[in-house]
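REVIEWER CHECKLIST
Item 1: Sequence provided? yes
Item 2: Single chain? yes
Item 3: Sequence as submitted:
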Amino acid sequence: MTINKSGIVSLLALMILIGFAPRLAAAGEETGPGTERVGKAIEVIQEMATLDELGLPSKILRECHGIAVIPGVIKAAWGIGGQYGRGIICVRNAEGGWSAPAFISLVGGSLGWQIGVEKADIILVFKTRRSIDNIAKGKFTLGADASIAAGPVGRNAEASTDIDLNAEIFSYSKSKGLFAGVSVKGSSIKIDKDANAAFYGEKRVPARRILYGQDLRTPGVVDDLRKALEKITSRKD
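Item 4: Structure as written out by the authors:
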Protein backbone atom coordinates (compact mmCIF):
# COMPACT_ATOMS: atom_id res chain seq x y z
CA MET A 1 0.00 0.00 0.00
CA THR A 2 1.39 3.37 -0.99
CA ILE A 3 0.80 6.44 1.19
CA ASN A 4 1.46 9.83 -0.38
CA LYS A 5 2.89 12.82 1.46
CA SER A 6 -0.48 14.34 2.30
CA GLY A 7 -1.63 11.01 3.66
CA ILE A 8 1.36 10.83 5.98
CA VAL A 9 0.69 14.35 7.24
CA SER A 10 -2.96 13.47 7.91
CA LEU A 11 -1.95 10.29 9.73
CA LEU A 12 0.52 12.16 11.92
CA ALA A 13 -2.10 14.82 12.70
CA LEU A 14 -4.56 12.11 13.70
CA MET A 15 -2.01 10.44 15.98
CA ILE A 16 -1.22 13.77 17.65
CA LEU A 17 -4.92 14.50 18.15
CA ILE A 18 -5.47 11.07 19.71
CA GLY A 19 -2.51 11.62 22.00
CA PHE A 20 -3.85 14.97 23.19
CA ALA A 21 -7.49 13.84 23.51
CA PRO A 22 -7.29 12.97 27.24
CA ARG A 23 -5.75 16.37 27.97
CA LEU A 24 -8.35 18.16 25.89
CA ALA A 25 -11.09 16.32 27.76
CA ALA A 26 -9.57 17.28 31.09
CA ALA A 27 -9.32 20.90 29.98
CA GLY A 28 -12.99 20.80 28.98
CA GLU A 29 -13.90 19.65 32.48
CA GLU A 30 -12.13 22.67 33.93
CA THR A 31 -13.77 25.20 31.62
CA GLY A 32 -17.13 23.67 30.63
CA PRO A 33 -20.70 24.59 31.65
CA GLY A 34 -20.50 22.50 34.82
CA THR A 35 -17.42 24.35 36.03
CA GLU A 36 -19.10 27.67 35.25
CA ARG A 37 -22.17 26.63 37.25
CA VAL A 38 -20.03 25.65 40.24
CA GLY A 39 -18.15 28.94 39.95
CA LYS A 40 -21.38 30.92 40.11
CA ALA A 41 -22.49 28.94 43.16
CA ILE A 42 -19.19 29.78 44.86
CA GLU A 43 -19.83 33.49 44.23
CA VAL A 44 -23.23 33.24 45.95
CA ILE A 45 -21.74 31.34 48.90
CA GLN A 46 -18.92 33.86 49.31
CA GLU A 47 -21.43 36.70 49.35
CA MET A 48 -23.38 34.85 52.03
CA ALA A 49 -20.27 34.99 54.20
CA THR A 50 -19.99 38.77 53.95
CA LEU A 51 -23.50 39.68 55.11
CA ASP A 52 -23.50 39.08 58.86
CA GLU A 53 -26.49 41.25 59.78
CA LEU A 54 -28.58 40.64 56.67
CA GLY A 55 -27.36 37.18 55.70
CA LEU A 56 -28.24 33.65 56.71
CA PRO A 57 -28.00 32.97 60.46
CA SER A 58 -24.75 31.23 61.39
CA LYS A 59 -26.46 28.72 63.68
CA ILE A 60 -28.63 27.44 60.86
CA LEU A 61 -25.62 27.06 58.58
CA ARG A 62 -23.53 25.33 61.24
CA GLU A 63 -26.24 22.75 61.92
CA CYS A 64 -27.30 22.04 58.34
CA HIS A 65 -26.93 18.65 56.65
CA GLY A 66 -26.66 20.05 53.15
CA ILE A 67 -27.14 23.08 50.95
CA ALA A 68 -28.36 23.73 47.41
CA VAL A 69 -27.43 26.85 45.46
CA ILE A 70 -29.28 27.69 42.23
CA PRO A 71 -27.83 30.90 40.78
CA GLY A 72 -29.80 33.09 38.39
CA VAL A 73 -33.26 31.53 38.71
CA ILE A 74 -35.49 33.23 36.16
CA LYS A 75 -39.03 34.28 37.00
CA ALA A 76 -41.69 34.14 34.29
CA ALA A 77 -42.53 37.63 33.02
CA TRP A 78 -46.23 37.28 33.78
CA GLY A 79 -45.63 36.69 37.48
CA ILE A 80 -47.27 33.36 38.21
CA GLY A 81 -46.14 31.27 35.25
CA GLY A 82 -43.15 29.65 36.87
CA GLN A 83 -39.45 29.79 37.49
CA TYR A 84 -36.48 27.84 36.25
CA GLY A 85 -32.85 27.53 37.25
CA ARG A 86 -29.93 25.14 37.37
CA GLY A 87 -27.52 24.73 40.25
CA ILE A 88 -25.83 22.32 42.62
CA ILE A 89 -26.44 20.44 45.86
CA CYS A 90 -23.82 19.29 48.39
CA VAL A 91 -24.02 17.11 51.50
CA ARG A 92 -22.18 17.63 54.76
CA ASN A 93 -20.55 14.52 56.23
CA ALA A 94 -20.19 13.48 59.87
CA GLU A 95 -16.75 15.10 60.10
CA GLY A 96 -18.08 18.45 58.88
CA GLY A 97 -16.58 18.18 55.41
CA TRP A 98 -18.48 18.52 52.15
CA SER A 99 -19.29 16.22 49.27
CA ALA A 100 -18.67 16.91 45.63
CA PRO A 101 -21.56 18.79 43.98
CA ALA A 102 -24.42 17.01 42.25
CA PHE A 103 -26.08 19.11 39.54
CA ILE A 104 -29.79 19.87 39.82
CA SER A 105 -32.54 21.88 38.17
CA LEU A 106 -35.35 23.79 39.87
CA VAL A 107 -38.74 24.21 38.20
CA GLY A 108 -41.93 25.54 39.74
CA GLY A 109 -44.34 28.30 40.63
CA SER A 110 -43.18 31.80 41.47
CA LEU A 111 -45.88 32.97 43.89
CA GLY A 112 -43.41 33.64 46.71
CA TRP A 113 -41.16 36.01 44.78
CA GLN A 114 -40.74 39.63 45.72
CA ILE A 115 -42.48 42.21 43.56
CA GLY A 116 -40.26 43.55 40.83
CA VAL A 117 -37.69 40.75 41.00
CA GLU A 118 -37.22 38.90 37.72
CA LYS A 119 -34.04 37.00 38.51
CA ALA A 120 -32.60 35.79 41.80
CA ASP A 121 -30.27 33.27 43.35
CA ILE A 122 -32.09 30.58 45.34
CA ILE A 123 -30.49 28.92 48.37
CA LEU A 124 -31.94 25.90 50.14
CA VAL A 125 -30.61 24.86 53.55
CA PHE A 126 -31.39 21.26 54.51
CA LYS A 127 -31.96 20.53 58.19
CA THR A 128 -32.26 16.76 57.69
CA ARG A 129 -30.48 14.13 55.64
CA ARG A 130 -33.79 12.55 54.62
CA SER A 131 -34.64 15.35 52.20
CA ILE A 132 -31.30 15.05 50.43
CA ASP A 133 -31.64 11.27 50.17
CA ASN A 134 -34.99 11.71 48.44
CA ILE A 135 -33.59 14.28 46.01
CA ALA A 136 -30.79 11.87 45.10
CA LYS A 137 -33.41 9.37 43.96
CA GLY A 138 -34.39 11.61 41.05
CA LYS A 139 -37.20 14.17 41.39
CA PHE A 140 -38.39 15.92 44.54
CA THR A 141 -41.22 18.41 45.17
CA LEU A 142 -40.66 21.04 47.84
CA GLY A 143 -43.53 21.17 50.30
CA ALA A 144 -44.94 17.81 49.23
CA ASP A 145 -42.00 15.47 49.76
CA ALA A 146 -40.58 17.58 52.61
CA SER A 147 -41.78 20.56 54.63
CA ILE A 148 -40.23 23.88 53.62
CA ALA A 149 -40.41 27.41 55.03
CA ALA A 150 -38.98 30.80 54.12
CA GLY A 151 -35.81 30.97 56.16
CA PRO A 152 -35.01 33.56 58.83
CA VAL A 153 -32.46 36.25 57.97
CA GLY A 154 -29.87 37.97 60.16
CA ARG A 155 -28.27 37.23 63.52
CA ASN A 156 -31.33 38.19 65.57
CA ALA A 157 -33.56 35.87 63.56
CA GLU A 158 -32.24 32.86 65.46
CA ALA A 159 -34.16 33.99 68.55
CA SER A 160 -37.39 34.71 66.70
CA THR A 161 -40.45 32.84 67.99
CA ASP A 162 -42.27 32.71 64.66
CA ILE A 163 -39.71 30.58 62.83
CA ASP A 164 -41.14 27.30 61.59
CA LEU A 165 -38.70 25.07 63.47
CA ASN A 166 -40.41 21.94 62.17
CA ALA A 167 -39.56 22.68 58.54
CA GLU A 168 -37.00 20.31 57.03
CA ILE A 169 -35.76 22.92 54.55
CA PHE A 170 -35.25 26.68 54.80
CA SER A 171 -35.43 28.62 51.52
CA TYR A 172 -33.81 31.94 50.65
CA SER A 173 -33.41 34.23 47.68
CA LYS A 174 -30.71 36.75 46.91
CA SER A 175 -31.37 39.63 44.55
CA LYS A 176 -29.71 43.01 44.23
CA GLY A 177 -27.18 42.03 46.89
CA LEU A 178 -29.77 41.27 49.60
CA PHE A 179 -30.89 37.97 51.11
CA ALA A 180 -34.48 37.24 52.09
CA GLY A 181 -36.59 34.26 53.00
CA VAL A 182 -38.68 33.14 50.03
CA SER A 183 -41.44 30.61 49.44
CA VAL A 184 -40.66 28.06 46.74
CA LYS A 185 -43.27 25.55 47.87
CA GLY A 186 -44.47 23.47 44.95
CA SER A 187 -41.22 23.80 43.03
CA SER A 188 -39.54 20.60 41.92
CA ILE A 189 -35.87 19.68 42.17
CA LYS A 190 -34.57 17.22 39.62
CA ILE A 191 -31.14 15.63 39.31
CA ASP A 192 -29.40 16.88 36.15
CA LYS A 193 -27.97 13.58 34.93
CA ASP A 194 -26.45 15.01 31.76
CA ALA A 195 -24.56 17.71 33.65
CA ASN A 196 -23.28 15.16 36.18
CA ALA A 197 -22.09 12.86 33.40
CA ALA A 198 -20.27 15.66 31.59
CA PHE A 199 -18.65 17.09 34.73
CA TYR A 200 -17.43 13.78 36.15
CA GLY A 201 -16.70 12.07 32.84
CA GLU A 202 -18.96 9.09 33.51
CA LYS A 203 -22.12 8.33 31.56
CA ARG A 204 -24.23 6.98 34.42
CA VAL A 205 -22.80 8.38 37.61
CA PRO A 206 -25.54 8.13 40.30
CA ALA A 207 -26.30 11.19 42.40
CA ARG A 208 -25.89 9.13 45.57
CA ARG A 209 -22.34 8.23 44.58
CA ILE A 210 -21.52 11.90 44.02
CA LEU A 211 -23.00 12.95 47.35
CA TYR A 212 -21.84 10.02 49.46
CA GLY A 213 -19.05 8.34 47.47
CA GLN A 214 -15.30 8.83 47.78
CA ASP A 215 -14.01 7.41 44.50
CA LEU A 216 -14.78 10.24 42.10
CA ARG A 217 -12.20 12.16 40.12
CA THR A 218 -13.14 15.82 40.57
CA PRO A 219 -11.97 19.00 38.80
CA GLY A 220 -10.06 21.56 40.86
CA VAL A 221 -13.07 23.88 41.18
CA VAL A 222 -14.63 21.34 43.58
CA ASP A 223 -11.89 22.09 46.11
CA ASP A 224 -12.72 25.79 45.84
CA LEU A 225 -16.38 25.00 46.46
CA ARG A 226 -15.59 22.93 49.54
CA LYS A 227 -13.43 25.69 50.98
CA ALA A 228 -16.20 28.25 50.48
CA LEU A 229 -18.75 25.97 52.18
CA GLU A 230 -16.42 25.20 55.08
CA LYS A 231 -15.90 28.90 55.64
CA ILE A 232 -19.58 29.77 56.03
CA THR A 233 -20.55 26.67 58.02
CA SER A 234 -17.70 26.89 60.53
CA ARG A 235 -17.98 30.56 61.47
CA LYS A 236 -19.27 31.49 64.91
CA ASP A 237 -20.70 34.97 65.47
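Item 5: Key structural point noted by reviewer: DSSP finds seven helices and nine strands in the chain.
Item 6: Recommendation: ____
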